[in-house]
Amino acid sequence: MAVLRFEPATITQIAQRVGLAKGSSSYHVRLLERAGLVKVVRTRKVRGVTERYYAMAARSIELPDPGPGQPDVLLRNAVADLEASPVDGERHVRMAHLRLTEEQFTELGARLQALADEYRTLSDPSLPDVSLVFALFRPTPRRQVEGDAK
């Protein structure tokens, strides 16, 4: 999916970029296509073979909230990407604890989404990748968590 973030690619191009065999890449792209996450956006004939260019089916993917006790796959992958990023590179990481009304909570969520959408339109495929992850949620109150442990 990361290979297709900014521009369409063929199975061969995807395989080269992720370091997999063409057969393995083809298999995984077909799974993503069946799931509706990628789609063929154009084709062309090359020496009698039809080459398909795949792209993400949507500009973003919204995953459902995990069930109780289930890991949040999106955030775990984001943390893994952050940990793998160059230590000497510029990073902006912050966690803030806020106390907001329902209205403020909803407004902040909308503003964060709008800001992400605004910068997505500015994305230039010739520039290096930048990842943005945000999670706005109400944690379980500490007293309830501590009370559950007794």
In short:
The protein is an alpha+beta fold and 150 residues long. Helices cover 41% and strands 11% of the residues. The longest helix is centred in the last third of the chain and has 20 residues, at 102-121.
Key traits:
Arc Repressor Mutant, subunit A, two-stranded antiparallel ribbon, 2 domains, single chain, 2 strands, elongated, alpha+beta, 150 residues
Distance between the termini: 44 Å
Mean pLDDT: 84
| Total individual domains | 2
Low-confidence stretches: none
**What value does the Rg take, in angstroms?**
20 Å
Counted by DSSP, the helix tally is: 5
Sequence of strands across the biggest β-sheet: 1-2
* Count of beta strands: 2
The structural class is: alpha+beta
Q: Which percent band covers the strand fraction? A: 5-15%
Largest sheet descriptor: 2 strands, antiparallel
Query: What's the SSE pattern?
Result: HHEEHHH
CA-based shape? elongated
- Helix % is 40-55%
